[in-house]
Write a structure and sequence with these properties.
heterodimer; A: alpha+beta; Ubiquitin-like (UB roll); 5-stranded mixed beta sheet; 3 helices; 5 strands; 22% helix; globular; B: mainly beta; Methylamine Dehydrogenase, Chain H; 4-stranded antiparallel beta sheet; 30 strands
């Protein structure tokens, strides 16, 4: 199981409390994790990736194991610790003030 | 007994205000969708408990919310707005060609007779329609594919389709307004469109009387006279008596003719309201006085409505979708400010009071008159 942490606004939208656990088919990649997330929670479609282009939204970041994976290929394998479920995959809203 | 429901969209959530027909005491519910920008909330004329809300975020994109119980509970519906075919390009601020890219829904206009049919005006400017209560959205691409489309360009607020008017007497006729392309009319249910900007004059474009390029902030009509249109342009208040074929300026004695909203009295088709704003770079009211101007003659002759509104040290703006009217016997007028107040008049503008204060900046106000 892959552990996923969502930003607060998306937890509210999907009516989720706390961390998620997702079963992901095949290799654990950013794409396969978000695919599984959207399949379980259709209301999240379009909020992490653009609905049409499927590109990560500019103000969304993917972190894991203290690294920013946002600019990696969406098909790159996630760290083993994420695939093994010992570390979460963090979907983060970029910091912005004002 | 009749009642009124006011639907308020703000920078940080939606609020729903309700009152009985006296409009003296108001219950305030919200924020719904706290933390998100709510560009617009509007109810179906065919089923007042069916509401649609445009919930948007720079982080998380577009969500469309639907309520079947007058806003007590909500459910997200479809949020995929895919332009029809290969979208092509429009002009960017620097004159370069830029591909059309969906950003957000500015305005929902539910059908007059079917609660599942809704039109959506979006940025980058296009018109979408759902016929299944918001689950799926299809573009009416004849508008964007008009031969002038590649020359449209955004105003400072983005290239938004901000107004949709449905003709109650001619189901095939509809009007839209786009900043900064102008006003357009369809006479075949949205399949094809033509610009209706003759008579507009905009000094901020190279040809001030061009067919397109005008920054139309809002158009309004009274349902009993759908051929008479009123427009608040970037500068200038305009009127057309022939469905937009030709416009004439009716700014008259306004202290400034810059502004955003314009609306029509529910029972007096020639009585209209605007909120003059100082200028396009000073988006606040002139002389630090918040004044609604009313014309009982369809423009040209205006009177300032000030009773109950701040007349000193006021620096708010009133955005284009932030004014609405109810249809009670004594027509109620409502508007929201960027300072977070929603003001209401239950006597057609003669006097005002805030029905809520200190909300986040108000983006939109709609009113439902309930039996």
């Amino acid at each position: 199981m892959i552990r996923v942490v969502l930003p607060a606004h998306l937890r509210t939208l999907a009516r989720i409390n706390g961390e998620l656990e997702l079963a992901v088919e095949g290799a654990a990649t950013a794409r396969s994790v978000v695919d599984a997330l959207e399949a379980c929670y259709p209301t999240l479609r379009g909020t992490i990736r653009d609905n049409v282009t499927q590109k990560r939204r500019p103000y969304i970041r993917f972190f894991a194991c203290e690294k920013d994976l946002s600019h990696d290929s969406p098909d790159s394998p996630l760290p083993e610790a994420v695939a093994a479920g010992s570390e979460p995959f963090l979907i983060v809203g970029a910091i912005a003030g004002g | 007994m009749s009642a009124v429901r006011v639907l308020v969209g703000t920078r940080k959530g939606a609020f729903i205000l309700t009152s009985d027909g006296k409009r003296e005491k108001w219950d305030i519910a919200g924020p719904h969708f706290a933390g998100w920008e709510i560009y617009h909330v509007k109810g179906s004329p065919a089923d007042p408990d069916r509401l649609y809300a445009s919930q948007t975020s720079s982080w998380f994109g577009q969500v469309v919310q639907r309520s079947n119980d007058g806003g007590k509970t909500w459910e997200p519906v479809g949020n995929k707005f895919e332009y029809d075919g290969v979208p092509g390009t429009h002009q960017w601020y620097d004159g370069t060609a830029r591909p059309w890219e969906f950003k957000r829904v500015w305005h929902f206009e539910p059908s007059l007779n079917d609660p599942d049919t809704v039109y959506a005006g979006v940025e980058d400017a296009a018109l979408f329609r759902t016929t299944d209560g918001g689950q799926n959205w299809q573009e009416l691409s004849g508008l964007r594919e008009h031969k002038t489309g590649s020359s449209w360009q955004p105003g400072a607020g983005g290239m938004c389709l901000n107004t949709i008017l449905l003709d109650p007497k001619n189901t095939e006729r509809m009007f839209v307004a786009i900043s900064a392309a102008g006003a357009f009319r369809s006479d075949d249910s949205g399949k094809t469109w033509r610009p209706i900007n003759q008579g507009l004059r905009s000094e901020y474009i190279p040809d001030p009387t061009a067919e397109v390029g005008h920054c139309v902030h809002r158009i309004a009509m009274h349902p009993s006279r759908p051929d008479v249109l009123f427009m608040q342009k970037h500068w200038d208040v305009m009127r057309s008596d022939n469905g937009g074929d030709k416009w004439q300026e009716v700014s008259g004695n306004l202290p400034t003719d810059f502004g955003f909203p314009i609306d029509v009295h529910a029972h007096e088709p020639a009585t209209i309201y605007v909120v003059p704003i100082k200028s396009d770079s000073e988006h606040f009211v002139p002389e630090a006085k918040l004044r609604v101007y009313r014309s009982r003659t369809g423009g040209n002759e205006w009177e300032a409505m000030t009773k109950g509104l701040p007349q000193s040290d006021c620096y708010v703006n009133v955005l284009r979708d932030a004014m609405a009217v109810d249809s009670l016997d004594s027509c109620g007028i409502y508007f929201g400010t960027t300072g977070g107040q929603v003001y209401a008049s239950s006597d057609a503008g003669d006097s005002w009071k805030p029905i809520v204060r200190d909300l986040p900046a108000v983006l939109s106000v709609e009113v439902q008159t309930l039996a």
